Amino acid sequence: MGLIFMQIPAHLLHTDWAGYELSVLNSLSQDIRKAIAKLDEKLSTNRVHVARVTIRRWQSICKILDADGLYVEHYELAKQNLRKLRKDLGKIRDLEVLIDMSQNFDLPKGMPESWAQRCEKRRKKLAAGFDPDPIKKHLKKLEREIEKTRRPSSFFVPARALRTSGMYPVPDRNDSAFGHLEPYLRKLEDQTHEIERKAFSPTQLHELRISIKSWRYFLTEFYGLTNLQLVRAQQILGKVHDIDHMLELLNEDNRIVDLGEERVDRISDSREKLLQEFGKFRKHLPYGLRPEVVSRAGVPEPVEKVDDL
After folding, report:
1. Stated pTM of the model
2. How far is the C-alpha of 216 from the C-alpha of 234, rounded, in Å?
3. What local confidence, expressed as pLDDT, does residue 281 receive?
């Protein structure tokens, strides 16, 4: 086998960062409009879940765009509307998860029924007041502005970047997408690594899950990478958080005693097994993972200049 040469893909090296970030935002905005259109037809469990995930993906890149000083009126208005919608959808989804767990752990009669009633009440309340038109209008206008612009950098206001970037360098208009995004990715990796070292309590594990999720979405949306280890870590920590949340609610309602010793032991064992599985790879998360063009013939793949994305 020949030597393996690694290169960063051309679209990241030869595209300006502002245009690239706006293209990612534009694509996700279209995904949100599709998800919301389906949600308007029916607030089913699957559509609620898909809409929440799509909004989370959009919000994950907004953190980067905001740090870079992006300011467009319809972008700001869409963010406000989507923040509220995600919160409302989250209340429904949290109860749906509790209902599923109550069945898995065979909780006493009355508990799942109570959660189901609350879930249906919230679903009806959202359905009665849900108006997707303002969100779709702002997103559509944002997409049109992005598609029409010949100067992507004009959407980013240096003064706003100075206020929001924090530890990140002030954006340079001449940076490539890869050169500009690298400091953000390294920061996410460092942050996750630091949180992982101290994550043992429910609150700390939840913070680790959020950090891993931000890291994972960054790799997916900006670099086109899906890492199964990060996916699995998020899934495991999500299940741990769901158990912790369920126990917290039951404790607040003074219902823990109703579970009985056998159920409590079964829930604790399930949580411990999840943490043991995560423990097998938590110290070996894919820090340093980057997109690559790989040639196994001993010669680097040709890189073509990409002027527009």
Report:
1. 0.88
2. 9
3. 97
